[in-house]
Write a structure and sequence with these properties.
The protein is an all-alpha fold and 63 residues long. It has a domain at 11-51. It has helices at residues 11-22, 27-54. Helix 1 (11-22) packs antiparallel against helix 2 (27-54). 0% of the residues are buried.
């Protein structure tokens, strides 16, 4: 599976794709795994941004 150099990949996602290569997963499996991991990463990033935005100024260091 080729990933564009224009789009940075989270290190955990990159490592997962490397492991899929090691176990010789087919291209469709790699695409599905990448799609779900990328979606999860984006959702988590949005959630953290919302929590940071809504957190009181004094507690932001805890996030």
């Amino acid at each position: 599976m080729e990933i564009s150099d224009k789009h940075p990949i989270h290190p955990t996602i990159r490592k997962c794709l490397q492991h899929l290569d090691i176990i010789e997963a087919d291209e469709k499996t790699k695409q599905l795994v990448y799609m779900y991991m990328e979606s999860l990463y984006k959702d988590m990033t949005k959630q953290i941004e919302l929590e940071t935005k809504d957190a009181p100024e004094t507690n932001r260091h805890l996030l």
